[in-house]
Amino acid sequence: xxxxxxVCWDKCVDSPSSKLDYRTETCLVNxxxxxxxxxxxxxxxxxxxxxxxxx
Length: 55
What we know:
The chain is mainly α. The chain has helices at 2-12, 22-54. α1 (2-12) runs antiparallel to α2.
């Protein structure tokens, strides 16, 4: 999670300020959503592999 936070921060935030602009906010949201999508995909694949191993 810390690495993911660093990646999204480095990718999306040019310079820290007291308020996020639209582009930065959109970038962070997209980055987080891709992380969640990837995590769910890996979790689902792992579940499939475990289920195949038990049958």
